[in-house]
Write a structure and sequence with these properties.
The structure is a single chain. By secondary structure, the protein is of the alpha/beta class. It is built from ten helices and eleven strands. Strands 3, 4, 5, 6, 9, 10 and 11 form a seven-stranded mixed beta sheet that branches. Strands 1-2 form a two-stranded antiparallel ribbon.
Length: about 300
Amino acid sequence: MELRHLRYFDAVATELSFSRAAEKLHIAQPPLSRQIRQLEDELGAELFDRSARPLALTPAGRYFHTQVVQSLNRIQEAARATRRIAEGHQGWFGIGFVPSTLYGFLPEVIRRFREAHPRVEVGLSELTTVRQHEALKAGRIDVGFGRLELADVAIASEVVARDALVAALPARHRLLASKRVALSRLAEEPLLLYPAQTRPSYADQMLAHFEARGLRPRIVQEANEMQTAIGLVAAGIGVTLVPAPVQALQRQDVAYRPLREEGVDSPVVMSQRRGDDSPLLQAFRALVTATLVQAITAPQAR
């Protein structure tokens, strides 16, 4: 199976006509038909119902077309990313992030970076830490901000900040009577985990804090996104732990409380391709450092 087979199949599946697909591909129809037959023989599956009028995909063909479209898009992304890397990222800079990092210093860094480089298109991608590593190696992003410290020889990572975790509780919850909440008390409550997909993730980090203290929380539901978990908290389904900056997400039906224990936190991990010394990345990293230093010194100045 070669790349041309996928492109030929995509054209026929999109047009649902061998003649129109051949015209679109600028080839004769008989060779196109032979290529599709070769593909079907290799797969051991009929991709098209040739007796249908108009031409139709078989169930196997519909599934295969979905996969082919994703593969072709991925190849195009890789080609564009390769050109950007070869050109030193001029004109484009990709940032990956987990949602909770947008409640801390990152928005200010992005704002300052865009002001300093008005001709650079900044691409923003919401990705788990694991997906950020994949996107970095594929060239789809240039820097990532996650919550996990993952070992990867192709990726250079560093912890740039640590956010204390706080309990997110439904309004009028009985634990709100305390100024600080112990993890042992939270372990007795129905716990909401997030994200549900792509592990390891922040969910494992959350559980590790309980397990380190010999606690086994009662997990009632897993959500795909932090905002969903907070919405479920508002609905009274359970409680969860969020990084402290997330408290900026104010809702009348959710309240936050700091934890009684010390050292229950989540790191903000900045990752990049190992050996990447592009000027834009260096400028971005300098802004991260300056913004964090400013955030630390500002309270002292007051």
